[in-house]
Task: inverse folding
């Protein structure tokens, strides 16, 4: 992705969504009959997606797109579970939806999206489903290898198309750029892959000859694991093609917690943080695993070296 | 080919350093305070740590920083202890491997600009309560969010926006904090 000069960091996918709305959908949104009473501008929706501070009190509703219980994850966990043929992402969506509410947060003196007290376990269910899907599916070692190859493949296509080694997708800063970005469809990319234009990573994807994981730390590595990682990397030298950090926080304590509405409708109605009521939410910790990958043809040699190190150092090695 | 491999020891070292400096003081050094101080270090003192902050309910927040915090705790660089009294939350204290982690990330901690920024940060903000840091970091976030779009806001503009986002603060509390941040050069105000 190109660098946003304002932040000095790469643009995120939300920036492209916001630009598509702002540059390509303003007539549909602003001219729609349902919008006559509300007068929403496309730029309001773009600001909402990007979390601009100008949206003021509407920020409340942003929880629905970036919170622990946001619509995206509520959808993708069940959808991906179904299509991957696994049960890890299943949770009780209907129970969660009927538990959603809004209450006054006494700590911020402002309204907050919350789940009713009776919906605590459905909220826990979603958090656990996400944990299971990430550890069992999204962070599976072969799937992560293909993340690396797809990234390299797309980079090769951009470099070939633009004739520039530092080529990126166009920044989401104009109608022309966002249209050019949207022209990068699956059809176009797969066509170029089939035509053999995806560079080394394209050939690896085409031949399903992905890089192999020969060493991994524990999900939450300690000092000994990280020292071992350094040793393995040094021992394998140039055979290491990439080291993959799989980092994820399942439940963000304090700052972005799920709120629970207690005693709804009564004088004592209040909002409490989920981690105060749920040991599951309070104790689930993020992972920070690292894996070392080598080319498929070097796997046996590298595995042998790692095995020798396992024997001499004695822990944490696959 | 150079593998894209990095353990972010510098970021881990910064967390251990802040815990070392603030963990034993009277003010509770918890997760909220850590988030706000690191945000101010990055945005107010131009020390680029690679964190991306978003504005959440309690002010600027970065998930990656929380992941790093968990990792430093796993490495025994800090202890994160729940506080059962008062406002609750957590207390972050230095732990047995603190020195070793700070040593591994010393390339950051010994840079002259970082040494100076950390001293200033702690002098200016280290004694504030988490709630005061929440207000100040939110003000900086609002001002910088607009200035990136080429918009300079007046004191009144920022006060109105922050007041909408954080109604728990009075207008006068917000205005005093804006003026203080402007006087100390953390934000620029339009006339």
Result:
């Amino acid at each position: 992705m190109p660098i946003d000069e304002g932040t000095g960091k790469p643009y995120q996918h939300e920036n492209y969504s916001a630009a598509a709305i702002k540059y390509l959908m303003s007539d549909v949104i602003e001219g729609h009959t349902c919008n006559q009473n509300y007068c929403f501008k496309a730029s309001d929706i773009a600001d909402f997606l990007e979390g601009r501070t100008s949206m003021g009190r509407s920020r409340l509703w942003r929880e629905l797109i970036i919170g622990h219980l946001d619509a995206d994850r509520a959808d993708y966990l069940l959808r991906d579970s179904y299509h991957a043929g696994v049960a890890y992402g299943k949770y009780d969506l209907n129970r969660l939806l009927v538990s959603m509410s809004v209450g006054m947060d006494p700590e911020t003196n402002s309204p907050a999206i919350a789940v009713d007290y009776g919906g605590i376990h459905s909220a826990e269910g979603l958090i656990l489903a996400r944990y299971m899907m990430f550890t069992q599916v999204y962070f599976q070692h072969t799937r992560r290898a293909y993340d690396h190859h797809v990234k390299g493949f797309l980079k090769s296509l951009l470099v070939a198309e633009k004739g520039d080694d530092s080529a990126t997708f166009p920044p989401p800063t104009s109608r022309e750029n966002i249209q050019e970005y949207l022209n990068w469809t699956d059809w176009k990319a797969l066509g170029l892959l089939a035509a053999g234009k995806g560079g080394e990573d394209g050939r690896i994807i085409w031949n399903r000859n992905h890089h192999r994981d020969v060493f991994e730390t524990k999900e939450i590595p300690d000092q000994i694991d990280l020292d071992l990682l350094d040793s393995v990397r040094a021992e394998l030298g140039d055979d290491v093609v990439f080291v993959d950090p799989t980092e994820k926080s399942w439940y963000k304590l304090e700052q972005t917690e799920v709120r629970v509405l207690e005693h709804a409708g009564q004088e004592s109605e209040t909002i409490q943080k989920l981690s105060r009521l749920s040991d599951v939410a309070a104790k689930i910790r993020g992972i920070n695993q690292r894996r070392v990958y080598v080319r498929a043809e070097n796997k046996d040699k590298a595995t042998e070296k790692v095995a020798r190190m396992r024997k001499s150092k004695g822990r944490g090695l696959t | 080919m150079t593998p894209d491999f990095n353990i972010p020891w510098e970021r881990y070292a910064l967390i251990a350093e802040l815990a070392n400096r603030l963990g034993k003081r009277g003010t509770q050094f918890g997760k909220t305070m850590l988030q706000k101080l690191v945000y101010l270090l990055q945005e107010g003192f131009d020390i680029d740590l690679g964190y991306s902050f978003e504005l959440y309910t309690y002010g600027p927040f970065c998930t990656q920083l929380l992941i790093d915090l968990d990792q430093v705790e796993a490495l025994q660089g800090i202890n994160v202890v729940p506080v059962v009294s008062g406002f609750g939350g957590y207390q972050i204290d230095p732990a047995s491997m603190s020195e070793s982690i700070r040593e591994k990330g010393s390339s950051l901690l010994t840079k002259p600009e970082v040494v100076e920024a950390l001293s200033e940060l702690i002098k200016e903000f280290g004694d504030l309560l988490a709630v005061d840091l929440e207000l100040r970091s939110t003000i900086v976030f609002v001002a910088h969010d607009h200035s990136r779009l080429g918009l300079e806001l007046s004191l009144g503009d920022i006060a109105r926006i922050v007041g909408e986002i954080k109604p728990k603060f009075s207008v006068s509390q917000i205005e005093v904090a804006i003026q203080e941040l402007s006087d100390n050069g953390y934000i620029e105000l339009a006339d």
Summary: DSSP finds nine helices and four strands in chain B. The two ends of chain B are 52 Å apart (CA to CA). The interface with chain A takes residues 1, 3-5, 7, 30-32, 35, 48, 52, 54-58, 61, 63-64, 66-67, 70-71, 74-76, 88-90, 97, 100, 141-142, 145-146, 148-149, 161, 164-168 of chain B (CB under 8 Å). The longest helix of chain B spans residues 130-147.
